[in-house]
Design a protein that fits this description.
The complex is a heterodimer of chains A (about 400) and B (about 110). Helices cover about 35% and strands about 30% of the residues of chain A. Chain A is an alpha/beta fold and about 400 residues long. Chain A has three domains: about 190 residues, FAD/NAD(P)-binding domain, CATH 3.50.50; about 140 residues, D-Amino Acid Oxidase, Chain A, domain 2 (2-Layer Sandwich), CATH 3.30.9.10; about 50 residues, no CATH class. Chain B has a single domain, classed as Alpha-Beta Plaits, CATH 3.30.70. The two termini of chain B are about 30 Å apart. The chains are: A alpha/beta (about 400), B alpha+beta (about 110). Chains A and B meet through strand 10, helix 5 and strand 14 of A and loops of B.
Chain lengths: ~400, ~110
């Protein structure tokens, strides 16, 4: 069996893996970088709502006029359970990506920087081999082995790399959002807004979203926590949602998937292994957003990996700096968001309906986060413990 | 987590086999991988040909069943039970299949051979 030798093996061609590959190759042109992606195309199938905040994205890619942007978003609209509409945040809010185009562009950049991209190729197992790892791979031309000094596991929710490296990446059921989404055409909504709809009869334990792809077309999806889902799978909740709120919509696409709303795994590194993105539970537990986080983790991984390889020390102790950098960059915020999520779960639909009316009592142009918080606290003292959780 | 550890340990004892284990309907499965990190003993694998649940490792805890967004997972009679009964009978040790339900937080119920 042929053996492919490389300094860095990246498993998974999503935002985390592609940025990691691009930045390792750019930082250290003398290093060999191989990225494997199990699917036959980078970026497809899209398993994502495709919404991102504008702040983080620009650190990695220039979105101005880019063909991989479906829509620029300037507004956030919350729908309370009774569909009271609350408009907040105007201006530079974010984007809806076209990920089937976005990731191929990232992959091309990684390739130009010197990384080798292997599509339709899966890693089926790996074991420690001296100071590195020996991975079994299967690609379009059959089975082969990859000998890598360092492995970056960016293999998503299922994270097999983590398992093989002895890292615990399991998730308690209450922290798994089961999601389903259609691309829906021919519906009426504000094409400049992210819509988030909460409620126990809408999406128990999560929320429904409308993320515009263009005028009249949007990703319409929802996530539920199965323990609260009354035995109905996410797809069934979504079918019911569309029948109720967008009965005229034409469903032109469909996807399902899991979003892990759990804080970062306790250990993101092992000897010769770094985990990034969904594989390490780096999604914002409150919003469920993970694209920019994954890219930030990929960049940190690349920095630590190149330094470790230059020092010829890829031990877990050396790589621990990655874990610490991630925790201070976003991981500790996620712990706080996780506690807030748990506290917010305790309120019922009636509370959110009342809260929506309180916020709507503030004139739109004065709706800053501080004012919303202040008014909400005055009218609804039961929120105090939630706010307190942010600080403890 | 203690309960998970107990289930995993129990199911690995040679004479304890869950009556029911999780199985996938590959016609429905979208291969999203959501169920994989939910599995305490890590019995669910993704292959290019589709999702694979290792009946010998599955503890029958049901944690993967409801979260599947498309309802592709269900509990089925453990296919290993019939073969196990004959092999352990040959060794002279009793087979004790158990039903394990996450709803029962106390001791798992031990049942007779199915």
């Amino acid at each position: 069996m042929s053996v492919l030798r490389t300094d860095v093996l990246v498993v998974g061609g999503g935002p985390a893996g592609l940025i990691a590959a691009r930045e390792v190759a750019a930082r250290a042109p003398q290093l060999d970088v191989v990225l494997v992606e199990r699917d036959r195309a980078i970026g497809s199938p899209v398993r994502c709502g495709e919404g991102v905040g504008s702040k983080g994205l620009g650190e990695f890619m220039d979105p101005t006029g880019a063909p991989w942007i479906s829509r620029r978003i300037t507004q956030v609209i919350f729908w309370a359970p009774d569909r009271t509409e609350v408009r907040v945040a105007y201006g530079d809010v974010g984007y809806v990506l076209d990920r089937a185009r976005f990731e191929p562009v990232l992959a091309a950049e990684a390739g130009r920087a010197g990384a080798e991209i292997l599509v339709g190729t899966e890693v089926t197992g790996m074991r420690r081999d001296g100071q590195g790892w020996l991975a079994d791979a299967r690609g379009p031309r059959g089975e082969f082995a990859i000998r890598a000094t360092l492995v970056i596991g960016a293999d998503g929710v299922e994270s097999m790399v983590g398992r093989w490296a002895g890292l615990d990446t399991r998730v308690p059921s209450r922290d798994m959002e089961s999601c389903a989404q259609y691309v829906v055409s021919g519906i009426d909504f504000d094409p400049d807004a992210f819509y988030l709809h909460f409620g126990d009869d809408v999406a128990p334990g999560g929320y429904a979203w409308v993320f515009p792809k263009g005028v009249g077309t949007a990703n319409v999806g929802l996530g539920i926590v199965a323990l609260k889902g009354r035995g109905r799978p996410a797809r069934q909740w979504l079918d019911g949602y569309l029948d109720t709120y967008f009965p005229t919509g034409v469903r032109t696409g469909y996807t399902v998937g899991g979003v892990i709303v759990h804080p970062t795994v306790k250990r993101t590194v092992a000897d010769g292994v770094i985990l990034c993105g969904d594989a390490a539970h780096m999604v914002n537990p409150l919003s469920g957003g993970g694209i920019v986080n994954a890219m930030k983790a990929g960049r940190l991984a690349a920095e630590v990996a190149t330094d470790a390889l230059a020092a010829r020390d890829t031990s877990a102790a050396r790589l621990q700096r990655y874990h610490e950098s991630w925790m201070s960059l976003l991981g500790e915020d996620h712990l706080r968001f996780y506690r807030i999520k748990e506290a917010l779960n305790k309120f019922d639909d009636g509370f959110y309906n009342r809260l929506a009316r309180t916020v709507n009592g503030i004139p739109y142009e004065k709706r800053t986060l501080g004012r919303i918080f202040g008014a909400a606290l005055m009218q609804h003292p039961s929120l105090l413990p939630v706010v307190a959780r942010y600080f403890v | 987590m203690l309960y998970d550890a107990l289930l995993t340990r129990l199911s690995r004892m040679p004479h304890v086999t869950p009556i029911e284990v999780a199985a996938v309907d590959r016609q429905l499965c979208d291969e999203c991988g959501l169920c994989m990190p939910l599995c305490p003993p890590m019995a669910i694998h993704m292959r290019r040909e589709g999702l694979l649940i290792d009946a010998a490792t599955c503890t029958g805890c049901r944690k993967c069943i409801d979260p599947c967004p498309v309802g592709a997972l269900s509990m089925v009679h453990n296919p290993l039970l019939s073969s196990l009964k004959s092999s352990t009978a040959a060794l002279g040790s009793p087979v004790m299949p158990v039903t394990l339900s996450p709803d029962v937080r106390g001791a798992p119920t031990a049942g007779g051979p199915a």
